[in-house]
Amino acid sequence: MAYDYDLFVIGAGSGGVRASRLVAGMGKKVAIAEESRVGGTCVIRGCVPKKFLVYASEFSHAFEDAKGYGWSADNVSFDWKTLITNKNKEIDRLNGIYQKLLDNSDIKTFHDRAVFKDKHTVHLVNEGKDVTAEKILIAVGGYPWTDQSIEGHDLGITSDDALDLPELPKSIVIAGGGYIALEFAFIFAGLGSDVTLVYRGENVLRGFDADVQKQVHQELENKGVRVLTKTIFTRIEEKTSLKHVHLNSGETLKAEQVMWAVGRRPSTSGLRLREAGVETKENGAIIVDDWHQSSQESIFAIGDVTDRINLTPVAIREGISFAQTHFNDNAQKMSYDCVPAAVFTQPPVGVVGMTEAEAKEKVGKVDVYKTDFRPMKNILADNPERMLMKLIVDPKTDRVLGCHLVGHEVPEMIQMLAIPIKHGITKAEFDATCALHPTAAEEIVTLSKS
Ligand code: NDP
Predict the structure, then answer these.
(1) What's the CA gap between 353 and 400, in Å, rounded?
(2) Residue 141 Cα to ligand 1 middle (Å)
(3) For 153-262, CATH number?
(4) pLDDT for 142-161, tens place per residue?
(5) Residue of the nearest CA to atom 17 in ligand 1?
(6) Active site (catalytic) residues
(7) Residue range(s) of every CATH 3.50.50.60 domain in the chain
(8) What is the CA radius of gyration of the chain?
């Protein structure tokens, strides 16, 4: 049977665009559907705009630090509208670049919602037409979830809205203790909002190393964020332009904005996956094998919609693995080992490999090398912010199993450290590397056992 396309991709985010361009480059006929803006979560409403807000927020600390170095930086002011306008200009530019990349690769873009009709057919909702393809790739990502069982839940914004608020809120209550909750708590606190973080657990950043959790919690408090743990929202109501957030502790918080940052879910509802015979997990994530193939042989999925490791570079690599395996006769299995991650808190977190707890569970006894110090830059600034560096080592092989950093510019460091750590570097090899002085990073080659 002749199909309209060799590959039809649903979702033009980081993963979908990479996969479609690679496959088109192999001489195949490719089309892509995007119902929102080309670029996806990362470019339009995630990593990129978020990082601009982080940069904006960090200036407030830089102005404070500058005083210890002789600058007077007392009468500075901040304009939220300028930030959002400039951020949007850059997002528009990137959106244009992504569209050009697709056009230049001869990929047909449908600015439309695609839903399944059968295992080789999608229906374009606005155009009202059907398109067929030999293979279909689902790369629709996820959406910010909100707890709809809470009365007044719709009074709360999500990260999508937080990136485009008309005004900087004077006060905000944020639910959650993960990546998004913490990044936005620091963003708003740095920009001058009064921030309360409401987290249902005991230690924020669940799944991260315990020392990282402790350090970040401390920094939240140092930056003026009120952190309520073991606490959840029970009801939200609006009174005299303030939102009243009722908590299970009995307390009621009043704030201009309330934000949900309680996780993201795969955007699969409404795709009519059942008509195509595609199975999902309970949370909507598409079940795929090591080669990104779903329960239906002609349908594949990559990125956050599969809920494996929900990070942009992972989706991109999954796109490469999919294209090479299914269109180039060059099976490339995606490696999920030692994927570095950063949380853009202030200071940020950078991690790669196992936490101390995971390593103990996996290899038994581990050696821990750790330091916690005030970096040189913070001394004259009289800034109490500290830096954490921690290496987890397998004593049997001397292999470094994990690295956990908190401090200025650590996402830049962890990207570099991820290379040797993924490829099996030993602690002795760290020690045999000369330090570079004076830097904060030099401490990583002089760590002794704690
Ligand atoms: P996370 O999974 O990181 O955090 C969700 C938080 O919400 C957790 O603290 C969780 O608590 C809490 N929570 C979940 N359900 C409820 C509920 N019903 N009531 C109250 N609290 C609840 O999700 P995010 O939305 O922050 O981020 C989604 C994903 O996006 C991340 O996991 C990451 O993969 C990616 N991301 C990456 C970034 C980066 O690379 N810097 C930045 C932003 C997002 P508990 O801990 O108890 O489960």
Answers:
(1) 9
(2) 15
(3) 3.50.50.60
(4) 999 999 999 999 999 999 99
(5) 262
(6) 437
(7) 5-144+265-327, 153-262
(8) 24
